[in-house]
Design goal:
Strand content: 35-45%
Radius of gyration: 22 Å
Oligomer: single chain
CATH topology of the largest domain: Pseudouridine synthase
Largest sheet: 11 strands, mixed
């Protein structure tokens, strides 16, 4: 029998000898991988100790406590797991963390940390990149747990993703309350993107812009993507002569908060297997709002 002790945890009593994983699977309405993930993240206590071993032997009289939320893991600096099942993992990525390895950085990436996380459940588990956020952009993003799910998400991205919204602070005062930005993007030999207001044979990029707040120096914007081109928002803001705060690559001259002022705060997509709609919204850094005060 289950006893709900508080809104943050559940308690079970062990009635007969068993191993921890089958004990949990009999009582939780979720898959094997997700249950192993709870163990890896320190969400299961046997008595007063955190237990991460799925084959831990249980004896009658022991108390099993399940925490609804993960215990913070020092190994996963820079990422917060928002949702996880057998097909996808959704995270909130900090600014400064690469999505995937580069020639200069192999270890400190979201991909590497999530790979370590899933391999705590089973050594053969893998993670697959679906889309990316720039190193200096923070916010919500989704990874696949199988190659089949990765292909499904990428091949049907436009149909699967219902909403992708960013919040940014740009240099200068934008007077328009709302605006549809349409550009064609190309990449230089030095891997910098540039935008044209006319079709130049590049990739068409569409962003819906809404002003949230402004002062004489900065403007706070909400930006919803119709397309997902490389550096799309950053390039379009440069094209408007209002570069994103901290974006030296694309024309910014100020960096008062020590980072790129671009944050992916909303992601809504249809689950590729269950077909249910998953919606994620993460808080915008307070420093963004402070820039447009007064």
């Amino acid at each position: 029998m289950t006893k709900k002790r508080s809104k943050d945890q559940y308690i079970f009593q062990v009635k007969e000898e068993n191993e921890l994983l089958p004990f949990l699977l009999q009582r939780l309405d979720q898959g094997r991988n997700r249950t192993k993930s709870m163990l890896a993240r320190g969400q299961v206590l046997v008595g007063e100790r955190v237990e991460t071993q799925f084959n831990c032997k249980l004896v009658p009289g022991e108390t099993i406590t399940i925490l609804k939320h993960a215990v913070p893991n020092h190994k996963n600096k820079g990422i917060e797991i928002l949702y996880e099942d057998d097909e996808v993992i959704v995270i909130n990525k900090d600014a400064g963390l690469l999505t995937i390895a580069s020639s200069k950085e192999k270890q400190r990436t979201a991909y590497h940390q999530l790979t370590e996380h899933v391999r705590m459940q089973h050594p053969k588990n893998r993670i697959f990149i679906v889309h990316r956020l720039d190193r200096d952009t923070s916010g919500v993003m989704v990874f696949a747990r199988t190659e089949k799910v990765k292909r499904s998400l990428q091949d049907h991205w436009k149909q699967v993703v219902k909403k992708r919204t960013y919040v940014a602070v740009v240099e200068g005062h934008i007077s328009n309350q709302q605006q549809k930005l349409v550009s064609w993007l190309k990449e230089t030999k030095t891997h910098k993107m540039y935008a044209s207001a006319k079709d130049n044979g590049g990739q068409k990029a569409i962003t819906h812009m809404k002003k949230l707040d402004a002062n004489k120096k900065y403007t706070l914007l909400e930006l919803e993507l119709d397309t997902g081109r490389k550096n799309q928002i950053r390039v379009q803001m440069e094209q408007m002569k209002t570069p994103i705060v901290g974006d030296k690559k694309y024309g910014a001259t100020t960096n008062p908060i020590g980072r790129l002022a671009l944050h992916a705060n909303v992601l809504v997509f249809r689950h590729p297997i269950t077909n249910t709609t998953l919606e994620f919204k993460v808080e915008v850094p307070n420093t963004f709002f402070e820039l447009t005060k007064g």
